[in-house]
Amino acid sequence: MADRDYSHRSTIQKLGVSEGERIEVVGDVGPGLRDGVKQAIGRGLVRDGELDGAIVLVESLEDAKEILVRYRTRMKDSGYVWVITRKRGHDRYLNQMQVVPIAKRLGLIDNKTCSIDDERSGIRFVIPRAARRAAEVEADPSAA
Fold first, then answer.
1. d(Cα 91, Cα 118) in Å, to the nearest integer?
2. Structural domains present in the chain
3. For the chain, what is the radius of gyration of the CA atoms?
4. For the chain: N or C, fewer Cβ within 10 A?
C-alpha cells in the first residue's frame, strides 16, 4: 500500500483541530502551533474543564504517564490527546512506541502520528469507539 502524501496540509490540519473545539496546549510544542490552534478553533485555549483535545509536549515516560492520566479524565468520548515528543537525534528524544503501552493501560489507543516540525512529532491517543459512552447508550438505551 502506498503512503499517503499529506505535504499539502498544514500541521493544524494534520492534527485535526476544528473550529469551536475546547483545546489545551502545554509545553514547547513548536513555533506558531499555539497561535495556529487558536486561529483554527476561533477562540482562546482552555486550562480546565472537559476537553475536545489536548496537545502536550512530554520529555520522559513519567511525563507521558502523568499527562495521559490527567487528560484521560477530562476528554470527551470523541476527544484526543496529542503527545508531542522530540524527534530521533534530539538529545531529549523519546520513542513514542514506549508510550503506547501506558496509554493502553488507561483505555486509550493510538490512531495517528504527525510530524510537527523539524524537531517534534506527535502521536494521537483516543478512546476506542467501542469504549465510548455513546456506544453504550446505543447498545443499551437504559444506560443513559
1. 14
2. 11-143 (3.40.50.150)
3. 16
4. N
- Quote the CA–CA distance of 74 and 86 in Å, as a whole number: 25
- Is residue 86 within 8 A of residue 63, CB to CB? The reply is no
Mapped onto helix, strand or coil, the DSSP state of residue 94 is coil
Give the pTM: 0.86
Q: CB atoms < 10 A from the CB of 86, how many?
A: 17
pLDDT digits (tens, 9 = 90+) for 106-142: 999 999 999 999 999 999 999 998 887 754 444 444 4
Tell me the pLDDT tens digit for each residue of 30-51: 889 999 999 999 999 999 999 9
What residues contact residue 73 under an 8 Å CB cut-off, 6+ apart? none
Q: How far apart are the first and last CA of the chain?
A: 41
